[in-house]
Amino acid sequence: MQLDAVLAATLGGLLWAFGVLGKRIGVEGASDDSKQIRATITIFLYSLTTTVTPFIDLLRMDRAAVAIPLQDEAWRAQVIFIVMCGLASGLGGVLGTLAFAWAAGANSSLISMVENGCYTLFGAVFISLYFLQNPHISMYVGGALIISGTVVANMGQSCGRTRTDQTKGDSDSDSASDLSESTDEDCSVIVPTRLRKRCVVLAVLAGTCWGLGPLGKKIGVSVAPPGHQHAYTTCTYAAYISCTAVVPLCQLLVANRQKLAESLGDRGFRWQLVGTAVCGFISGIGGLVSTYAFSRASSDGAAIAMIENGVYTMCGALMIALVFKERPSVSQLFSATLVLTGILVSGLAG
Questions:
Q1: What does the pLDDT look like over 244-259, one tens digit per residue?
Q2: Could you tell me the pLDDT band of residue 187, with boundaries at 50, 70 and 90?
Q3: Which end of the chain is more exposed for a tag (fewer CB within 10 A), N or C?
Q4: Which of 92, 172, 140, 113 is nearest to 302 (CA)?
Q5: Could you tell me which SUPFAM superfamilies the record lists for this protein (predicted)?
Q6: CB neighbours of 291 closer than 8 A, spacing ≥ 6?
Q7: Cα-flanking dihedrals φ and ψ of residue 254, to 5°?
Q8: 181 vs 174, 175, 190, 191, 200, CA distance in Å?
Q9: Is residue 333 part of a domain?
């Protein structure tokens, strides 16, 4: 595997991780009634801002260079697959952001690990299947660890960052009783079992949909001739990332107008969207860099996907935990360790 491809994958994953933080910022503090609409607004804005970088790159490129992939019959034949993968990834973005919203601020860093762990696994699997690449044994071991971590996340108890403060004045027996009788509405302290399972299911579905993203980008750059990787990378990523906004846009068009107006009228939420937009712009740069990494690794697409997605997963969860001061429980730490170990083991395939 070429060193420049590995470095590009690592840098791309690091910058891309800001997207995880941006989506988490957008749904912070949302009430049960506004979670879905705020998740939709957040992912739509995030999707729009990620398109800025590739289109700026297109505008600054030489017209003759841009025309090469656009006139290439082999590349144009792949556009339909790039578009389909972009649409699926957009659906994953909606599901993943909704999982953050329902995580109640107590275990969103774990939810990030689960959805991105599934994304890492399925991204490599889809590439291996499409390009008929023989997966290394480490990919099977890593996949088993990621799945195990997801199961633990679905079974484990989630401890919120505000648990100590909220139970400080109660006796030990009263605290135990209160925690055992938590309802869906009382999710700032302990995420109830039903909500926790909902979050994990949404995270797994989101990761699976996102897994088609690396495949779409790899398909687009796989036909790039030597010396023209930049043009094929930019055109592929611009086509792909534009399609990720379609699903959240459709959701916005059919959304309840009153709830939409109430959310956008909230000054605090508007400031959160500024943070989402900044993170989306940085994430767009990371997506472009990671797509370039695929163009530099002709026969190691699955391994490149594992590297960049592993960095993305680890850094994204770490950013959330630090910014929102989340305190993971023992089961959360064990689950996250399994997922991260699975990603690292899978990376040995390169």
A1: 999 999 989 998 899 9
A2: very low
A3: N
A4: 140
A5: Multidrug resistance efflux transporter EmrE
A6: 12, 217, 220, 221, 233, 236, 237, 240
A7: -105, 5
A8: 11, 10, 10, 11, 21
A9: no
Question: Can you give the pTM of this predicted structure?
Answer: 0.73
Identify residue 316 by its one-letter amino acid code. Answer: G
Question: Could you report the per-residue pLDDT of 20-73, keeping only the tens digit for each?
Answer: 899 889 988 888 888 889 989 999 999 899 888 888 888 888 889 999 999 999
Query: Three-class SS of residue 333?
Result: helix
346 lies in some domain: no
Range of the domain at 298: 3-134+188-327
What is the torsional sign of CA 31, 33, 36, 41? Answer: negative
Cα angle 192, 193, 194 (rounded to 5 degrees) comes to: 95
Place of tokens 């990620």: 50
307 in any annotated domain: yes
Instruction: Tell me if 296 sits within 8 A of 226, measured CB to CB.
Output: no
CB 52 within 8 A of CB 184: no
pLDDT at 180: 43
Unique residue bearing structure tokens 């992912």: 43
The sign of the CA dihedral 96, 101, 102, 105 is positive
Q: Which of 258, 255, 283 has the alpha carbon at shortest distance from 40? A: 255
Selection from 123, 330, 109, 117 nearest residue 219 by Cα: 123
Average pLDDT, whole number, for the chain?
Answer: 79
| Per-residue model confidence as pLDDT tens digits over 275-309 | 999 999 999 898 888 878 877 766 666 677 767 77
Average pLDDT over residues 318-342: 76
Tell me if residue 66 falls in helix, strand or coil.
helix
Whether 224 is in a domain gets the answer yes
Reading phi first (left if > 0) and then psi (alpha if -120 to 50, else beta), residue 325 is in left
Question: What are the tokens at 287?
Answer: 């997506």
Six token digits for residue 193: 């079992």
Structurally, the chain folds into a number of domains equal to 1
Which two tokens mark 43? 């992912």
Please answer whether residues 110 and 151 qualify as being in contact, where contact means their C-beta atoms are separated by less than 8 angstroms: no
